[in-house]
Amino acid sequence: MKPGGFLLAFGGTRTHHRMWSAIEDAGFVIQDTIMWLYGSGFPKGRAQLKPAFELICVAFKTEAVAYFQRVFARVKDAGCDAVVLGCTEIPLIMNDINSPLPTLDSTRLLARAALRRAVAE
């Protein structure tokens, strides 16, 4: 796994807890659990719709935080004033608290701008 990489593991609904335990035993930190919802088959009526879901474990290695801290420190030493977290995964583990530089989370900034616009209208 590359430094800073995330693990996404799909688990069955009744046995996902075993996978999550194995992921932790392998040295990963579980960040979150997300769910993939999908319909199974083509229903003949609304009452026969059988939605299904699959749990997805989002995890990372603790070394990932140290890796990003080293990278951010190098660019700080080179004269950088802030870091744009333009990737959706990096803000899950890096923020202003554990970063040597101020961070700009593009997803959060866009969400705040959309909210301001929606409230203003």
What does this structure look like?
The protein folds into 2 domains: about 1-60, no CATH class; about 65-120, Rossmann fold. The chain has about 120 residues and is an alpha+beta fold. About 35% of the residues lie in helices and about 30% in strands. It has helices spanning about 15-25, 65-75, 105-120, and strands at about 5-10, 30-40, 50-60, 85, 105. The strands form 2 sheets. A 3-stranded antiparallel beta sheet has the order 1-3-2. Strands 4-5 form a two-stranded parallel ribbon.
Summarize the structure.
This protein is an alpha+beta fold and 121 residues long. The chain has helices at residues 16-25, 63-77, 106-120; strands at residues 6-11, 28-39, 51-61, 83-85, 103-105. The model has no long low-confidence stretch (mean pLDDT 83).
Helix-strand layout with pairing:
Elements: E1 6-11, H1 16-25, E2 28-39, E3 51-61, H2 63-77, E4 83-85, E5 103-105, H3 106-120
Parallel strand pairs: 4-5
Antiparallel strand pairs: 1-3, 2-3
